[in-house]
Design goal:
three-stranded parallel beta sheet; 5 strands; alpha/beta
Length: 206
Amino acid sequence: PYTTLFRSGGFAKTCPEEMLSTLFKAIQERTKLDPKLVGDVQIGNVLMPGSGAFTSRQAVLMAGYPVDVPVMCINRQCSSGLQAVANVAAAIKAGHVDVGIGGGVESMSMFDMMAVLNPDKVAPGAVEHEESRKCLIPMGLTSENVAEKYGIPREVQDTLAAASHEKAVKAQKAGLFDSEIVPMMGRTAKGEKMVSKDEGMKEGTT
């Protein structure tokens, strides 16, 4: 079943703040960064409790950064992490800070995207307005609508998907992603597991 597959990865039971703090520590170790110099931390975060503030703030502190390092969380849906990086780059360019960290974190295994949606708490006017009502359309239906609008048949999507898996597997075997990944111990439904590679690609996909 979908739910079983979705929650069977190496980070299925791993809290986002644990993943983030591991990353913050790695940044410090790899770049020899003095955490006291960090003028701002911005993290894209959509599904975490407390609008992401708990997760990101806790991660910075867990990694040993000073308590006066400011942290901001951004929710721009799928592009939240990209927006955080863009914001930090712009802040450095504008001279607001000399050193900043931008990134993103998400755990869709631990936090269900639709769990917080309560139809009883949606304003009647929001449902009556056509464009506003479309905000409630799930991503799956959105992809179907986009495919229909632009005339992208299922066969083309399947071909692209299979080619994407093939390229990713080839790149992983060649070690092209190794320098970008910080290995860490994850918690799974069956216990702890060291995660050092992306688990999403499937070799032999047709």
